[in-house]
Structures are given as C-alpha cells and as structure tokens.
Design goal:
The protein has 646 residues and is of the alpha+beta class. The protein has ten helices and 39 strands.
C-alpha cells in the first residue's frame, strides 16, 4: 500500500466595492480583481517561461507491470496519462475540466478508482475508470465528500470515507465496484475526527481503519465488515502518539505501521496481531519515516525517510527487518513509491530544486535488498528555462527568542549589493518547507533580484514530536516570534537587505503573514496573504463541519471562554490598526478549509482603516489555485505587487 474552484465579468473587468473599474487585466471570467492595477505586457512576457513548467508524477504501474501511469498537464489541469517506455510519448487517458485526485489500482485487474472534486470544493467523488478505453462511472452520490478508496484483495469491493450521513462525520463505507447501490456503512464516526480505510485483510473480511485526531494523536482499528465490530489494534486510548497504519503483511499475521510512541521521531514498526509483539524497525534512524510500500508477495518493502527536509529511499527485507539505503538516487524529494506486480521494479516520483516531479523506476533483484539501475521515464518541460542556473537551497538555522534553533532554507545568489528578501511561510501549520522544485522561488530570484528564505518555524513537521507541538493553543504567537527572530538574523547578514523584506504565505502561512504584519510592520515593506486565517474564532465557526474538531486540537477550542478571548486577542482582523504595510490578499471562492469570509473581512477592515490592499478572488477555485489560467494571472499580479513595493 502507498503512503500518501459562474461568473462573468463584463468585458473582463473587475470592480471594487464602490463599483469603480480597478483592473483591465484580461482573465477567464472567473477572477475578481479589486484595486489591482493593469498588469503590464512586459510582466506577462517575462513570466511566460516560468509559467509553462510541467511535471510527470508517477501514479502507478499498469496491470502488466511494464508500463506507467503518470499525471501531467497539457491543458489547464493535470490528467492521467500512460507512458509505455522510458522517454516515450504520454498518452492521455482522462479529459476532465478538473484535476484528478487520488488514483488506486484494482488488484489483478485493469480498473482504476480515482477521486475528483469540482471548483476546489474538496467534495471529492469516487469514480471507476477503464484506462483501456477511457470509460468511467461515478460511484458516489455527487454531493458529499468522499475519499481514500481502498480495494479489497480480490478487487471486487472498495472501502472509502464519506460524510454523506450528516455532512460532518467521516464515516467508513464498503461498496461493490459494480453496484454503487450496495454501499454500506461499516463504521459510523463517533466524533468529529477523521476516519478512513487503509487496507483489507487477505480474506477481505476485515478492514484496517485509520483514526486521525491530530498530527500528534492517531490510532488504528480493525473492523469486521459483516459484524461491524471494531477493535483497537494500534495506539493507546490513554496516551497521545502517532500510529499510522500502512499495510497487513502477506500472511495476515500483523501490520506494518509508523509510530512515534517510543521516541521523538516517527519509526517504521511491525506489530504481530496475535502476540502483540512490536518490532521497532528503524529505531536507529533519527528522522521521520514518511512513505511506505510493500510488494504483492510480501517479501520486500520500501520506505522513505525525511532527513532534514531531503528524502532518502530504503529497501526492506520483511522477514529479517534488515534494510538498506538506495545510493543511486539524486538528492531531492521522493513520493508515491509503489512496486509493480512482480516486484521487479519500484516506481516513484522524484523532485529536485532543478527539476519538477518526474517518474522513475528502480530495477530490483531477487534478493530484497539488492537493486540495479535507476531509470527515468519522463523528462518534464521547464518552459525553456536553464535550470542549471537555478539557485540551490542552503540549509541554515537561527536562534529564536527562547534560544530554540529554527531551521530554514535560504535561496540567495552571489551579489555585491545586499539582496531584498522574501520570507516564504508554509501552511499547515504542521507542514514543512522542503527543498523542492519551485519555479516561483526562481522567478522571484530572477525577476526581482531577491533572496528567498523558507523557515520551518516551531510547529513544523519533520523535526520530532516536541517541535511540532511548540505552537499549540496559547503558544500560538511563539511561532510568530520565530519570524521576528528571522528578521533579527537577516539584519546580521551582509548580503541581505533588512530594509527590504516581504512576507508571503498561504493558509496557516497566510495567518502568519497577517500576524507578522501586525507585529513587525516597521520592519517589513509588504505582505502577501493567500487563503489565510484572519480571525481564529470566525475561522473555526465557518470552516467545514468535517474539519472543525480537527482544527480545534491545533488552534484551541473557541467554545472555551479563556481560549476564545485569547484567539480574539491575537487575531489579525482585530489588530488592523497595527498593520502599516501594503497587503495583497488572494482567495478562492469555494475554499472549504479557510472560507472566503476570512479574506473578505480582513480586506474590509483594511479598507475601513484606509490601508493599501489588493484583492484577488477566483470564483472557480478553493484552497489555492489549481487551474493554470488562474495561477498565471495570480503570479503576474504578485510580481507587479512586489516590484511596486519591494
């Protein structure tokens, strides 16, 4: 098993709240641009190369095991394609107006189960696809939110997550692949946490189900399909720890899983379901295991490790638990690992700072730990850019207000003059900035002459369970202080210009941008907030029901009077008078995570206070822009904003 947004604007013009024309920028009829000047043609031309980058991400092997499915974009969004030979042509399989989501393959069969939503709503539906002729069929109700389709061993049923019962609960259902009307709920979620299928037992009588409470608390249950009896098999009900189920072993005797129950990092482990014995396989690796795949015959497995942001790939002998690091893979990020039918090849996506995600296979030998050549199947287009000139990320650390060492990636070219700085703050908050391919970073470096710093402030994933919990609840603004400490660090660097610094971030990173503008406006030139939280109380009130309890664990429960008072106190929308930098707010109308109301209220507050604010809203997007037609204009507007203010 693998680890792993109608509106027409007259003459394509946009209007501000008073009805005055504020932009003549051409768009697709789905973009509202308020107080944004016309984008000069020279910016459009300058950005063209950077906006025509494609990837070729690995999505699995065909049934024969000798051909690959990949996802790539030839039009507006990514679709499924077939590649028959390394370097071969990409044959398009799906032709939808929305991007394809998850892809899972029928055991011993040709069918594919995939997910797709509409307009970024994240109300994903599950479809079955025959890749031989491109025919497909909707399996779910077309309205609710569905995901995690998981095939049983015979390939005639899928287990999946759905909130169709009441819109809030993440229940688990089982369905015959040939009869959508057969869908039956096998687990009714008892709370607002997340529940989803992981794997089926060999006899297809039981389903392994993941219960995700928070990034530091998850458990795994075994559910009998017939009796609906639920049994806790991984995790302690009285103790928080990460327990992420991966797969049954081939003999159906135990479970491979990831856990941080026994030390600071997430280890690969195996539990025998009969004896209860646990084997901690990667106890000697002091980093998080973040990906896993097991071969069909169960003799070998593979896993990836996040080593200070970079990926390492290991092969595992499942009988002896011995493992070996694969040494012939370029330094970068590895994802989507999966074996072919005969376990003669391991497929995966590889992303480096110089190359977008491409599909690779690793040749495997009979012995589980012996491997051969690394073969590149796709070579993705980079818009004519010479990526050999891309600036490489440099891992740095700096001390925060409490002497905490904060890691960050610095992208800075050599220059005789100090460079302006763009601080890129990731979302999550339990995410991590990693040194992946970023045409955006390289665009900023090339077009603006800027340095880019991507900090992993406290609360980021990848540095142990203590670090990830340092920003929870009443400690929320300590992560904002980490940005203040980074500004201090920038002041000490002779090659960086501390008088010209911009903060940029999305989602939780958008909150961090707004909060940084509240606290450090005297040290900043401008700020870009993308789908950011402007008030935690209104956010928790208006986010989708199925997410609310999950976010309360991280941000605090607004129903508690003391926590509500604290959240109101620190919310940027209640501190607009302290913001003294130009702001660019970017939003998707259909965002189910951070609702459009979060953007609307901060924009209104800034305007009421006579602050400079640009506003962009895509009516066919959600939590971020997935359609090229929107991303292009968004990136052009960001460059215009930064050129004007940086």
């Amino acid at each position: 098993m693998n680890s792993t947004r109608i509106f027409f604007i007259l003459a394509c013009l946009s209007f501000n709240l008073s009805g005055q024309v504020t932009s003549s920028t051409k768009n697709n009829g789905n973009l509202i641009l308020e107080d944004i000047p016309p984008i000069p043609d020279e910016i459009v031309k300058e950005l063209n190369r950077f906006q025509n980058v494609r990837s070729g991400s690995f999505r699995g092997f065909t049934n024969s095991g000798s051909e690959l499915f990949i996802s790539t974009r030839f039009g507006n969004v990514s679709q499924l394609h077939l590649v028959k030979t390394p370097g071969g042509a990409r044959k398009q399989i799906t032709y939808f107006d929305e991007p394809i989501g998850s892809v899972t393959h029928q055991p011993d069969g040709e069918l594919i189960a995939f997910t797709m939503d509409s307009g970024g709503s994240e109300n994903a539906q599950i479809f079955k696809l025959n890749p031989n002729n491109g025919s497909y069929k909707l399996l779910t109700d077309g309205k609710s939110r569905n995901g995690s389709p998981t095939w049983n061993k015979t390939g005639n049923q899928i287990a999946f997550r759905s909130n169709k019962r009441n819109g809030a609960s993440n229940d688990v259902w089982v369905m015959s692949i040939n009869d959508p009307n057969s869908a039956e709920m096998i687990l009714a979620a008892p709370d607002g946490t997340s529940w989803g299928a992981i794997d089926w037992s060999k006899d297809s009588k039981k389903v392994l189900i993941q219960n995700y409470v928070s990034i530091t608390d998850s458990k795994v249950y075994l559910v009998d399909v017939e009796t609906k009896e639920r049994q806790l098999v991984l995790g302690n009900p009285n103790k928080k720890s990460v327990n992420a189920g991966l797969s049954f072993d081939n003999k159906n005797e135990g479970i491979f899983y990831i856990t941080d129950e026994f030390n600071e990092f997430k280890n690969l482990a195996y539990k025998n379901l009969t004896t209860g014995e646990i084997n901690l396989i990667t106890a000697d690796i002091k980093w998080d295991v973040d990906g896993f795949a097991i071969a069909k015959d169960g003799r070998r497995a593979a896993f990836t490790v996040n080593e200070n942001g970079f990926s390492s790939l290991y092969l595992l002998d499942t009988n002896t638990y011995k493992y070996k690091k694969v040494s012939n893979i370029p330094i970068g990020l590895i994802g989507g690992i999966n074996f072919n039918e005969k376990a003669s090849m391991l497929g995966f996506s590889l992303n480096t700072y110089q190359n977008p995600s491409d599909s690779f296979t690793l040749e495997l030998r009979r012995s589980p730990l012996i491997y051969g050549k690394l073969i590149q199947w796709t070579e993705s287009e980079v818009g004519g850019l010479d990526t050999s000139n891309f600036i490489s990320p440099k891992l740095i650390t700096y001390k925060s207000f409490d002497n905490l060492e904060v890691p960050a990636f610095l992208y800075a070219k050599e220059s005789k003059k100090p460079l302006p700085v763009i601080i890129y703050i990731h979302g999550g908050p339990e995410s991590q900035s990693r040194p992946s391919f970023s045409s955006t970073f390289q665009l900023w470096i090339d077009q603006l002459g800027a340095a880019v710093i991507a900090p992993n402030v406290r609360g980021s994933n990848g540095y142990g369970k203590t670090y990830v919990g340092l920003d929870n609840g009443f400690n929320r603004e300590n992560s904002v202080k980490d940005i203040g400490a980074l500004l201090d660090w920038i002041e000490q660097q002779p090659n960086l210009d501390s008088s010209r610094v911009v903060v940029y971030g999305g989602s939780y990173g958008g909150y961090m941008v707004l909060a940084s503008a509240v606290h450090y406006s005297d040290r900043l030139k401008a700020a870009v907030d993308i789908v950011g939280i402007s008030n935690f109380v209104t956010f928790l009130t208006n986010t989708q029901d199925y997410r609310r309890d999950l976010r309360r664990v991280e941000y605090g429960d607004e129903r508690d009077p003391k926590m509500r008072e604290f959240l109101e106190q620190i919310s940027p929308n209640n501190n607009v008078e302290k913001i003294a930098v130009p702001m660019f707010v970017v939003q998707g109308q259909n965002d189910p995570r951070v609702p459009v109301t979060e953007a609307e209220q901060i924009v209104a507050s800034l305007r009421d206070a006579n602050k400079t604010v640009w506003y962009m809203n895509a009516l066919n997007e959600g939590h971020g822009y997935r359609k090229k037609e929107n991303r292009d204009i968004y990136q052009q507007a960001v460059i215009l904003f930064l050129k004007e203010h940086l």
